[in-house]
Please model this.
Amino acid sequence: MTTPTLPRRFSARLRPLAAVLLLASGLAHAQALEVAASFSVLGDLVSQVGGERVKVRTLVGPDADAHAFQPRPSDAREVGGAALVVVNGLGFDDWMLRLARAGGFKGKVVVASDGIPTLAMSADDDHGHHHDHGHDHDRAEKGGKAVDPHAWQDVGNVRRYVANIADALTAADPAGATAYRDNAARYDAELQALDSEIRSTFGALPAERRKVVSSHAAFAYFGRAYGIEFLAPVGVSNNAEPTAKGVARLIRQLKAEKVPAVFIENVADPRLIERIRSESGATIGGTLYSDALSAADGPAPSYVKMMRANLGVIANALGAPTPAN
Ligand code: ZN
Model:
């Protein structure tokens, strides 16, 4: 009868080890760096770099519009208690800075977009006839012109975001330096591959098949990086009614230039795009993820998957060879 004693002997030997492991995981959990990120794309980037050393709290979650975010008092307390606050900057999420102040935040604010080549808003947006003037003070300026905040739509910019996040995590938690550097390097390689994939997919498209329509002006950085022109009935801030004149002009342009596809956005009401489709004769190309990821069971639960999902629907609508994955 040796068999019953074996497990007992093993478990007796393993017990101290198990206790140590439990203690270690308990400590790791207790010491996880608490990071507050303003919206879902940033939350994912922080998780990619931070791995198990960080606990990320994202304020504006999947499919939600950060332009129109209404914080609750409990949000201020949570942001105030974080060790690090990560924002996009460029006027996109200045409410996060006010929230941090209100919550008594004492740590460092990381502006993920620091150092990227910014784009000014289009002339149309600058005239301001279709965005919410109540939020004008939120917008960053570039040479007197408002800056377009949607810089994450260019993968090249996000490589910079990731480097900035890695530097900030390392400064806040020097013991994790190696982990952050390794995670950032692995993720950067993934981003480089994604960037090349987008470029090669669109590379062969003829000039007349490079124009599409989306709900709000969120894709200028994508357009600059990958050579696709996006037209939009609603401006950069996505929280005002477009003018009837502007929509009529857009529909005339779509017909004249035979723009093949219009896109719904995950953060916008689809009815306007549906109307533009029916009046212009274009087809609905699908849903683009502009300012938020999808839920975990959707097609865009991470930044890389979001860009691949967008690439897939745009390439398909424009007749570019769809990526093989
Ligand atoms: Zn937006």
In short: Residues 28-120+146-188 form a domain with the Rossmann fold fold (CATH 3.40.50.1980). The chain has two domains: 28-120+146-188, 204-318. The chain is about 45% helix and 15% strand. The pocket of zinc ion is lined by residues 67, 150, 216, 218, 238, 290-291 (CB under 6 Å).
